[in-house]
Q: What sequence folds into this?
């Protein structure tokens, strides 16, 4: 079951509660004051990917020396490599 963050409008207490997806938007009861109108707080989530970059950060012994960058397949003036300029305003 996911954990959701809630905030009480009466006493400003922030708390977490585990509940199902179906109940995620239902009001919660504040554990401090008992108000039944605590609302869900929108927050960002964090993901962990066990890729090579994460492994190198977690295990300092696995770091390798950086090699020369691979040659670019793009040419000079490439739209993705050239900074965009704002269009000129009409006079």
A:
């Amino acid at each position: 079951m996911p954990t959701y963050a809630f905030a009480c409008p009466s006493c400003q207490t922030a708390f977490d509660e585990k509940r199902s997806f179906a109940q995620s938007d239902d009001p919660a009861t504040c554990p401090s004051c008992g108000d039944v109108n605590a609302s869900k707080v929108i927050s960002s989530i964090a993901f962990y990917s066990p890729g090579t970059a994460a492994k190198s950060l977690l295990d300092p012994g696995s770091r390798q020396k950086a090699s020369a960058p691979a040659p670019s397949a793009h040419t000079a003036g490439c739209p993705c490599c050239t900074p965009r300029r704002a269009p000129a305003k009409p006079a």
User: Anything to note?
Assistant: The longest strand covers residues 3-7. Helices lie at 52-58.
